[in-house]
Design a protein that fits this description.
By secondary structure, the chain is of the alpha/beta class. Helix content is 25%, strand content 27%. 45% of the residues are buried.
């Protein structure tokens, strides 16, 4: 049913009453869920217009009345980690008895939203460490909620999901591997219940996860809409292709032949500006959370898209925080790994855009340049990715005094025939893993980069080349799939970078 139809129905006498006669909660609120600690507990839902509603949780009861559209919302007092608890919602009597919805086994702890594209969506059962870890995935203090794919052109008030469940080998196997490893590490380190919401869709752009009005407020992001316009102009061809591919699949199935394979192409609506925000993130924003972990960027690596990524991504982060309305919560993201892509994509530029996004407050980036697979865009090492995100969470969100990042570029200073590079996050010094430093290039004022010899000097790197008399610029790991080996003494890889604007 279209939004306009719903609005018209809601304006008709008795229409809302018939639509929401029963007390109902959104699917994101279910038994076995985790409620964010130390934040007011938000409970909301629908019933008949003007109906009295009461909510009870941890010995506290709050009452309200539904609005003319049948919506209601209450906030209860924040509390410390613990559980399990029972949460009950009671409405007006129907057929002589009060309507009651009961959520059982509710824990209080920390809730993290895991989002992005296929490397966050990548399931536990496919991870390199699945055989050793899945059999031991039962943990009642880790709760999982998986959101189903939904792209739509207006914000929804609920997600499509089967609800919360405790982590078991069965529930974990189809869940985000990165998110599960992150949750396991946080639960073990912080000793609080951890809930993770897996809201992901492979092969999608950051634009689709960003509210359309937020993108439209920045004139510099007009190319996002131009790109989308060009895609929709090709919609007829795309639909024809999809129909033809489905026909070939059906014919193969009927003939008992293997299903034919086709080149990957995006599902059109999953790339529409704001469409994944509308269907998969907006309905989550009434829920209190601790923070977000994000793994995406590969689909934004096209030559025209990559230079815009910092602006799109920063807009997305700031707008998510605004829409949640609970402050600048930690936003922890993964820098895309190394992959032998082609000349139509610029992974180095995309990584640089991600690096620059760290200018936003309360953000951190897990560098994965050392644990990718140059021949597979979906590396199977998700354990280390989850652990590196958890390091960032332990530092930014939980206040641990730990090194959570590898070296990141601070500045470069020319020194005659060489150039010196200064870094942030050089805990325990710098190290070249496996021998001499690799991956450095220098350029003169003409901006033409050539390979450089580089050496560690204290907490800096000095680079030079006989082909550049006076280096002005330096870069590191500047390729889709670079060979680079600079680490902190604590064993975390340095981020690729360039000093040239």
């Amino acid at each position: 049913m279209q939004l306009r139809t719903l609005v018209l129905l809601a304006l008709l006498p008795g229409a809302a009453a018939s639509a929401y006669a029963q007390v109902a909660l959104p699917k994101v609120l279910s038994s076995h869920m985790v409620v964010e600690r130390d934040l007011p507990v938000h409970v909301w839902g629908k019933a008949a217009p003007g109906e009295p509603i009461s909510v009870s949780f941890r010995g506290e009861t709050r009452a309200t009345t539904t609005d003319p559209l049948g919506k209601w919302s209450v906030y209860l007092k924040p509390g410390a980690p613990g559980g399990s608890f029972e949460l009950t919602v009671t409405g007006a009597p129907a057929d002589g008895a009060p309507q009651t919805v009961t959520l059982d086994d509710v824990l209080v702890g920390d809730v993290w939203v895991a989002s992005g594209q296929s490397n966050m969506e990548f399931e536990m059962r496919e991870a390199a460490t699945a055989d050793q870890d899945l059999p031991h995935a039962a943990n009642d203090h880790i709760r999982l909620l998986k959101v189903k794919h939904k792209a739509i052109d207006y914000p929804l008030d609920d997600v499509e999901t089967e609800g919360w469940a405790a982590s078991t080998p069965e529930t974990a196997k189809n869940f985000s591997a990165v998110a599960w490893y992150f949750a396991r590490e946080i639960e073990q380190r912080e000793h609080v219940p951890v809930g993770v919401i897996d809201s992901t869709w492979g092969g999608t752009v950051a634009d689709a996860w960003t509210r359309e009005a937020a993108l439209g407020a920045d004139a510099a992001l007009a190319p996002v809409f131009v790109s989308w316009g060009k895609m929709t102009e090709r919609e007829t061809d795309a639909l024809a292709r999809e129909r033809d591919e489905q026909r070939q699949r059906d014919e193969a199935k009927t003939a008992g032949k293997p299903e034919p394979q086709f080149p990957w192409h995006p599902q059109l609506d999953s790339w529409g500006p704001g469409m994944l925000w509308n269907g998969m993130i907006a309905p989550l924003t009434p829920l209190g959370i601790r923070g977000v972990i994000w793994y995406q960027g590969e689909s934004n690596s096209a030559l025209l898209r990559a230079p815009l990524y910092r602006r799109v991504f920063s807009t997305m982060i700031e707008d998510w925080r605004h829409e949640w309305g609970i402050g600048d919560f930690p936003f922890l993201f993964v820098q895309i790994s190394n992959f032998k892509s082609n000349e139509t994509e610029n992974w180095a530029e995309l990584r640089e855009q991600q690096l620059k996004t760290l200018a936003l407050r309360n953000t951190a980036m897990a560098v994965t340049i050392d644990i990718g697979n140059p021949d597979n865009v979906h590396p199977t090492d998700k354990l280390d990715v989850g652990l590196r995100l958890a390091l960032a969470a332990r530092a930014l969100s939980y206040g641990e005094d730990i090194g959570y990042s590898g070296p990141t570029f601070r500045q470069a200073t020319p020194e005659g025939g060489s150039i010196r590079v200064w870094f942030e996050h050089h805990a325990k010094g710098l190290a070249a893993k496996g021998g001499e430093l690799t991956g450095f290039e220098v350029a003169g004022a003409d901006g033409k980069f050539v390979p450089a010899a580089a050496k560690i000097d204290g907490n800096t790197v000095v680079a030079s080349s006989p082909d550049v008399a006076e280096p002005v610029y330096v870069r590191y790991g500047w390729a889709n799939s670079p060979q680079c080996n600079l680490f902190s003494g604590a064993g975390l890889p340095a981020s690729p970078f360039t000093s040239a604007e």
